[in-house]
Design goal:
Elements lengths: L1 E2 L4 H7 L7 E2 L14 H19 L5 E10 L2 E2 L6 H11 L3 E11 L5 E12 L4 H10 L19 E5 L2 H5 L3 H10 L5
Parallel strand pairs: 1-2, 1-3
Antiparallel strand pairs: 3-4, 3-5, 5-6, 6-7
Helix pairs in contact: 3-4
């Protein structure tokens, strides 16, 4: 099996299945299409990553995943710079938002399996001082919504309803369901 992702968090989470796998990131355009719903977007990107790598390795199972932080129906994406990260964190402060995490498995026999995890996350009010320190740490810069729940931002999460691992970047339940459906897990 190949994980079509450069994310160390996804690599670590996939490791809980105790399967041997390699990692080969997929370089695809992750732009959202006009009018595309957030759930359709993350599923399309997860499948696109898996298909890109599967085209190079047609005899392998390839797993792709994508995560989006969605506020008021708008996927926030990854911050482009520190100011953008600050703006995202201010928007999330004291509010609930959704984290959508899609996982797709392309099988050697041509099957394309996919699942979607939806989690509601609520932040407490974030202080400007903390936002500044967090942004300076660099942690928000490669993460959807400018935060990682498994790091410093987790201390500000008031409530989560859904999949913690999905918020981190690879929903374990949905991934396990795909692996079972493909016959790779009992």
């Amino acid at each position: 099996m190949i994980l079509a992702s450069a994310s160390p968090r996804r690599r670590e989470l996939l490791g809980v299945f105790e399967r041997t796998f390699s990692v080969e990131p997929a370089d695809i355009d992750e732009s959202r299409q006009d009018g595309e719903a957030a759930d359709d977007y993350v599923i399309r990107i997860a499948l696109g990553k898996a298909l890109t790598v599967a085209n190079r390795h047609p005899d392998k199972y390839v797993l792709g995943s994508d995560t989006a932080v969605v506020l008021d129906g708008e996927p926030l994406g990854k911050p482009v710079d520190a100011d953008h990260a600050r703006t995202m964190l201010r928007r999330l402060s004291g509010r609930s938002h959704e984290v959508l995490s899609a996982v797709a498995l392309v099988c050697p026999d041509g099957r394309r399996l996919q699942r979607l995890s939806t989690t509601e996350v609520e932040f407490d009010l974030l202080s400007e001082r903390w936002i500044e320190r967090y942004v300076v740490s660099g942690d928000p810069m490669d993460k959807a919504g400018a935060y990682g729940i498994q790091n410093q931002a987790g201390i500000w999460i008031r409530r989560i309803s859904g999949s913690y691992s999905g918020v981190v970047g690879l929903p374990l339940f949905e991934t396990g369901a795909l692996l079972r459906e493909a016959g790779l897990l009992e």
